[in-house]
Amino acid sequence: MRAAEVIALLSLITGTVVAAPLDDKLKEAEDYLRVDPSRTLKILNNIPTPHALTDVQQIRWHIAAMRASVFTGELKQIIDSIEAIFHHQTHPYFIDKLVTVTSGTGIWLRKHDYIIDAQISLECSVKYAINDRQRLTITNSLALLARQLDELEKAKALYSKAQKLAKLADRKNLLAIIENNQGLIALEEGRIERAEQHFRAALAGYQNIDKRSGQISAGVNLLFVFALQQQWVNFQRLYSPTETLTLAFPNEGKQALLLWLNTRFKHMHGEPLTVKEKKRLLDAYTQLDDDRIRKLVSEHLSTGMDMILPGFKKPVTKRFNRPWFEKVKRCDW
């Protein structure tokens, strides 16, 4: 009988709640990462005083929190956990999880426009990657970085390479991620029908593995192309299940885009915008994931809505300075 079953049986017999061992709770949080990362965060936050855990338990807690927060868009939790993990950078378990930590660091840096430092962190991840699964994940992150730098041909080449490797390794999760990201590139290039094909493939892939965060991302993106093509029957069919998932998931960026899409649908069907709705849209505009999404919304969804949206600031080169990041730059463990 497994430990969790023993605990449940004791609770039933005694009529009291018997606390699961911390390792079991951490394992439960880790098991939810793929299917429901918001549940992962809830489980972690119910573990009392994380700083009182053993070193290995603290590292596990923060790695799980970091990974879950990447999916839920809670960027502050990502950097807080990275900071905490680097307090243990000489611990053998940290070394064992180095690629996960540095690739997560690269993701946070990219999302905060520390482009040069994101590249450094991801290249460090490549150096210590020990299997194809890790190399595939890092390749995807490098492609996202290339897209952010408007190096779309480089990004497409990286995705094509990753896609071939993912098919050989039967990595269904990564195949869905790649399809979704290829769809975003096609959308930016104005190849709407091609974008739709990618987003449909991504959504089907995420549904097959029951990855809710992926279903939300691909679902919202597919709604976007349906709105562009005025495929309103398809839009309505997909909207309800996507809305249910999105509103139950703590990701402001996806919820903000969903609001824009639903308002666009109503506006195209003759509903005038109120002053209050315009205010909500302006607030949601600032909550979108990044300037690339804001640009797509500005170009395609705000048309005819009589709204003045904030302009785009020219990207500035900035560098990330934290004492622990010097070790990442040296990349010598």
How large is the share of residues in beta strands? under 5%
Main β sheet profile: none
Could you tell me the number of beta strands?
A: 0
Terminal Cα span: 40 Å
Helix content: over 70%
Average pLDDT reading: 90
Note the run of SSEs as H and E.
Answer: HHHHHHHHHHHHHHHHHH
* Tally of separate helices: 18
Oligomer: single chain
- The low-pLDDT segments are 1-19
| Helix/sheet category | mainly alpha
* Radius of gyration from the alpha-carbon trace, in angstroms: 21 Å
Shape from CA axes? globular
Question: In words, what does this structure look like?
Answer:
With 333 residues, the protein is an all-alpha fold. The chain contains 18 helices and no strands. It has helices spanning 3-14, 22-31, 37-45, 55-72, 75-85, 92-96, 98-111, 115-128, 132-148, 152-168, 172-188, 192-209, 212-228, 232-247, 252-268, 275-287, 291-300, 325-330. Helix 7 packs parallel to helix 9, helix 9 packs parallel to helix 11 and helix 13 (212-228) runs antiparallel to helix 14 (232-247). The protein starts with a helix and ends with a helix. The model is unreliable at 1-19 (pLDDT under 50). This is Tetratricopeptide repeat protein. InterPro entries: TPR-like_helical_dom_sf. Residues 1-19 form the signal peptide.
Give a nutshell description of this structure.
The protein is 72% helix and 0% strand. The protein has helices at 3-14, 22-31, 37-45, 55-72, 75-85, 92-96, 98-111, 115-128, 132-148, 152-168, 172-188, 192-209, 212-228, 232-247, 252-268, 275-287, 291-300, 325-330.
